[in-house]
Specification:
Radius of gyration: 29 Å
Strand content: under 5%
Order of helices and strands: HH
Largest sheet: none
Shape: rod-shaped
Mean pLDDT: 77
Number of helices: 2
Low-confidence stretches: none
Bound molecules: zinc ion
Number of strands: 0
Distance between the termini: 94 Å
C-alpha cells in the first residue's frame, strides 16, 4: 500500500537496494529526504550566522571581557594602596 502519494519522495540514487531511488518521503519544501541532504546545513543569512555565533558564547570568569575587567580592578586596587602608603 503506497503511503500518501501527495508527499514528494526523495528519489536520491541509493547505493544499496540495487541502486533503486530512495523512497523516503522528502523533507517539506525540499526534494531530498533527511538522509540525502534534506536536513539543515547551517545558517545561510547574515542574521542566522550571527545567531549561530552567539550560541556558544560564554558568559563567565574567562571571557576576554571578564579577564580585562579583573585586571582593571586589580590595577585600581594597586593605585589605591599606593595612595594609602603615600598619605
Ligand atoms: Zn533519500
Amino acid at each position: 500500500m503506497p503511503i500518501n502519494s501527495s508527499v514528494q519522495l526523495c528519489g536520491a540514487k541509493a547505493r544499496q537496494n540495487n541502486h533503486q531511488p530512495c523512497r523516503q518521503p522528502a523533507m517539506r519544501a525540499k526534494n531530498r529526504c533527511r538522509l540525502h541532504g534534506g536536513k539543515a546545513t547551517g545558517p545561510k543569512t547574515l542574521a542566522g550566522k550571527k545567531h549561530a555565533a552567539q550560541a556558544n558564547l560564554k558568559y563567565g570568569r574567562y571571557t576576554n571581557t571578564a579577564i580585562l575587567e579583573r585586571k582593571y580592578m586589580q590595577e585600581l586596587m594597586r593605585w589605591r594602596d599606593d595612595l594609602h602608603e603615600l598619605s
